[in-house]
Amino acid sequence: MLVILGLMLFALLCPWRNLPTNLDTLLKSLWRLSGPVAVTWAIFVLVLIGTTAYSVLLLIHHLGTVGTNADHLRQIILAIPVLIAALVGLIALPVTMIRLHYTCRQTLAEEEGLITDRINVAVVGLGAEKTVKFEDSVRKIVERTVANIEVRIGSLLALGRLTRNNLDVHVQVMQILVSYINANPIVLRSFSPTKRSSPAPLTSSNTRLDVQTAFDVIGDRTADQVEREKLRVQTNQVPRS
User: Fold this and answer.
1) Which end of the chain is more exposed for a tag (fewer CB within 10 A), N or C?
2) What pLDDT does 70 receive?
């Protein structure tokens, strides 16, 4: 009885705005429920249906003997609130399930938005630059804009941490890292205002730290990340009808 009264109170306090009422949405919400949750809701449904059926049968049984037996009248009076509570519970049940489904969708949307914002901030950091000053051959102060290696390394490490915690964006982050490596020179060139920089062999000592960090992030992929990449390749290779 307390469970039914609790469901009735929840149904009265539950906001009804912005809730879908069509059968298709309800069935989709029911289908998305996990196993334990679905079993729990099934038990609630059976209890509520059983309570409703029992109250209806009890009411029908005692209606014909109201005038001859006062005990029957008392049974009817007790059965009516139970019947109302059971009906309210049956109405509140699908509403609760739909609200649960939409709450999960809202939570997922907020999480995806947060991940997208973090990726955007990191991408902006990959293009960070700073102004450095130096003296040229005639002792004149010259300013030049160069890559802010420290900020870029921080952005690369943030992307690596993000892709380890969120496999859904792993392939996207890997594409960003590969594009960054392709768009930036791998070998660190010494700048001189009077001499032209010449290519140098690729070694660990003259490799740009940010590009090396990008290689390290790609090389530190876990087995799950590699499997996600294979799945993406297999999906792209499936012919579309």
Assistant:
1) C
2) 66
